[in-house]
Amino acid sequence: MIPGLETPRYQVEDLGMSTQISIPARKNWFILIFMGVWLTGWLFGELFALGVLFSSVGGLLARIFGIGAFDFFEFDDGMGPAFAGGFILVWLAFWTVGGYAAARTFLWQLAGKEVIEVGPTGIRLSRPIFGLGRVKEYHADEIAGVRLLRGDEGTGKKGIAGPPQLVFDYGFDTVGFGGGLTTGEVEGILEEITTRYRQYAPGG
User: Fold this and answer.
1) Rounded to an integer, what distance in angstroms lies between the CA atom of residue 32 and that of residue 107?
2) Each residue of 29-53: pLDDT tens digit?
3) CA separation for the pair 72, 65 (Å, rounded)
4) By mean pLDDT, which of 69-78, 131-140, 143-152 is the weakest?
């Protein structure tokens, strides 16, 4: 490394038949700590709501079959457990979705990375967390012009600068990848790809 220059945040690995470029998620320690604390509270809320839900369902079944109430709460009429169960079920659905989104953010910050695998037959893109994640494959004969998208070129709003990223045309779609880096780093990845595989360069 040249003195005074920072090491790029991405890593390049030669796999023989292809080249793999890995970009670890940029960690924000405030978000990690905040999300960790929030998810702890979320888990307690989730378990409590599940307990109330099961109790309400049990109480309703007990009233229906005349077994005797065994739920955690006393209700003045037979509709009490049904109403409580319905309300908790709706609340629990929203609470669970919110927790899932927060957990994904937390785990992405903790161990996520973007993986770009480029070879003569195509490009594979994935964003695994702890090695798990869906892989999208793009065939070489449909890929046109891997290039750098700068600033407001991709926002559609003049004067509003977005993060730089790489894009290529794939049929009628435009696929973006390599975000969350500086312009210099994105340019470095572009050079790695187009130098090793000239077919992906614009006009290549």
Assistant:
1) 9
2) 999 999 999 999 999 999 988 887 7
3) 18
4) 69-78
Q: Architecture of domain 11-25+113-200 in CATH?
A: Roll (2.30)
Q: What would the two tokens of residue 14 be?
A: 């030669």
Q: Quick one: tokens of 156?
A: 């559609």
What is the value of pTM for the model shown? Answer: 0.75
- Strand-pairing partners, residue 165, are 149
Neighbouring residues of 11: CB distance < 8 A, sequence distance ≥ 6: 21, 22
- Could you tell me the CA-to-CA distances from 98 to 52, 59, 91 in Å, in that order? 19, 28, 11
Q: Which of 116, 141, 135 is nearest to 193 (CA)?
A: 116
Is residue 135 helix, strand or coil? strand
Residue 53: how many CA atoms within 13 Å on its side-chain side?
A: 14
